[in-house]
What we know:
By secondary structure, this protein is mainly alpha-helical. It has 44 helices and seven strands.
Amino acid sequence: MSPSAPPDPTRPDAPPVPEPHGAAGPLTHHSREQDTLGVLLDGLAAGRSAVVTVTGRPGYGQNALARRTARIGRYRGLRVLSARAVPSESGLRHGVAAQLLTSLGAAPGRLAPVLRAARQHPLLLVLEDAQWADPESLHWLHALVRRSATAPLVVLASGTDAGALGPDWRCLAASAPEPERAHQLLLGPPSHADTALTVRTVCGAEGEPEFTAAARRISAATPAVLHAALRQFSRRGHLPVTERIPELEAVGRAALDDHIGRVLRGLPDETVAVLRALAVGGEVLGFHAVCALAGLGHLREARLRAVLDATGFVHTTGTGTGAGMRIRAEAGLRILAGMEPADRADLHAAAARLAHHGGAADQEVAGLLLHARPAGSPWAVPVLRRGCAAAQRAGDHTRAAAFLARALREPLDEQSHAGLTLDLAAAELVTAPEAGIRRLGGLTRTRDAARSALRVRALDLGLAAGDTDGMRRAAAEARPAAAAEEQEALVALYWSADPADREHAERVVPAMPALPARPTSALQAGPRAWQLALAGDGLTAARELARAALARPARDAPVLPRLAACKALCLTGDHDEADAGLTALLTGMRADGRQVAAPHVLAARAELNLRRGLLAAAEHDIGAAERALPRPSRHPAATAQLRAVRIVVDLERGDTVRAGTLAAEPVPDAARPSPYWPHLLFAQALVAAAGRDTAEAVHLLRECGRLLLHRAHLNPALLPWRSVAARLLRAAGQEAEAHLLGSEELRLARKWGAVGPVGWAELNAGPAAAHEDPARARYAADLLRRGPAGPGYQRALADLAAAELATAGNRQAAAAAVAELKVLTATHPAGPMARCARRLAAELAPGRSPGPDRPPSWAELTPPEARTATLAAHGHSNTQISGMLSLSRRAVELRLSRVYRKLRIGSREELRALVRDMEGN
């Protein structure tokens, strides 16, 4: 180089080459490639030839790198010939060659003028977007490269594979006369450090780590997008800090969208067709089916995969020839946005047909049909129905409703349309309750005799969803024109919503008749049994009616009448039958999509488990009910009932903090008129009592009682508000009112006749507290022992032990009661009865006379085995024990087998006798 030549810009001490504004943006992390190209320019100046291909995905900066190399070459005095291929000229013969030869005044296709010019002065040929070069020009370049050894010539071609599906331009390097003269540079995405450098360069400040990571993610690790987004971000005066990530996301989305649009505009039609097919069916169809969908099944698969991968819009799943390709999430919508809506719908329809015939999952085919126009295909509606069922099982209720709404757009007869409308309404009750209720109201008011079953089911769902007033009016309007069997069903459902609400019935026009005293209809038997149970009159009749209501198979029967029957059995003390009925209801609802009624059934079972002392099972049911429906879709009555049961469960487990928090949370106003509002007041009263706020607790109990009496819910088995208030009042010294309330509850409990309520009332009636009256405490405990070992029985054991200690001095009987109480409360040691058991045990400890010594073999039992043995000896079944100890029934059986073996006994009777001797009974 002559002394007057410009300084070498590739040397460290040389001044930098002036860069156009923004030109260096995408090149920030390509320093290694820039160094390689600088060395090749040095070699060219020294007379050495080379061929270089620079490739990468769109936006990675390969063209910018080529332009920078050309600029450096000119700055150093080299002769530079530049050309840029474009899609519109890819079919123009010698188009690129003509651009390169114009400055030499040579005709296209000639090699001699180029070689002659190179011999006169080192020559750099730069071709951008080489993927669009016409085949003739590529052939000419290959010939030139093969002759480059005869003259100082460097051929630099940059581009991407995301172009025409013709010859591979990167093969230029293979034409080099010597391998060391060929160089292939593959540009990759920026690393985290590269991104940090770009942030610092563009924004003028060091980016916080979270900001830098967000910048790389938002730009899809594409240098051009990263640079464009950061420039826009910086121009708005923002600093690269974490708090400004939302602003970066806004400009980043726009920059990425522009980038995707530019790339798509530069792609050939066949490549865009495959990308669109991938965007529509790539998640469902195999690669060959996608190609067929795009109409390109004849092309070479390997080349097509390479072209698609080079766009940067796809990622490969799997390996080998069966590998699939998926559109990246950020590119999918933009790829389809350029299509006409009708064409897009047709593409989805074609993809759905291919997927259906290819055996794809129903939910996947249904997802494609969502965006397709109705075609009347006989398989479409069944697929959409099955897709809906699959979505519901997966908990995606919004998608399930969308599938049914799409099915309604297909050509259907009236009966099928009505059935689909009902199913759609049921699905919408979870996601859009108001829309679902409107559909159900419309179905209930139809007059078509052929739709009787649909009307009944629509009414059942609407009442379960919480539209009590509207659906009861619809039932009253539909009844006069209905057939006799349907009239019975409408009356049954009307009273199932609130069996004791006679005031509303008197206001309804046309009037709705009362339930018969002894219905012959199985549907009417359930609500009638619940009516009797609430009134606390006619236990035998209520039990018989409830059993008759549950005798009908659950699959086709409405939910609410059967639920009423189960709740009646709960109050009659037939807990196992009630549990079986509720479980059967849940199974049937899961099978036919009546999800909206699940919280009612689960709440009833949770309350049943609470009564039986199965706190873990009750808590499980509450959680399942809360998951079954989101709060906005939940019936107000279910909200109040669930809240009440959870509060009591928390109290029994000893979690007074969570119970207090729940009790203080606001409740929707719509829950106040519900039949379960008194239940919530009762639970809040228990929280106040646990916090020793007796006045507030008694006030809440009185309000609870007032509302129950207003509804004629007289049965103390429902809520023993009088006895709880009596205990609190007696402790506060208000003996007269306590005695009055306790006596009234005992009278009502005896009138009802169930053993459990009578035992609890006996425990709390009388002029003195039960823990001061051993005889009454023993009688109450004996009665409660015939039922489940729930909170009532546990309280009776505590009162009995306290009475035996304080009054009768029977320490052996007290010790036996405490021992059983400790076993029953072992699974929730923080609960109030567990604490009471420990306190009583401490009173027994000094100088206790435990009665006969335990046999030596008892010491061989582990603590869990001893608890299980004690429960079995006190008359609890294996099923009850499994619930109390949160074990499977099989685990209880195995544990008792070990107990029998260690104690050397062979039956439950021997175990009872052994434990009686130990406890001194």
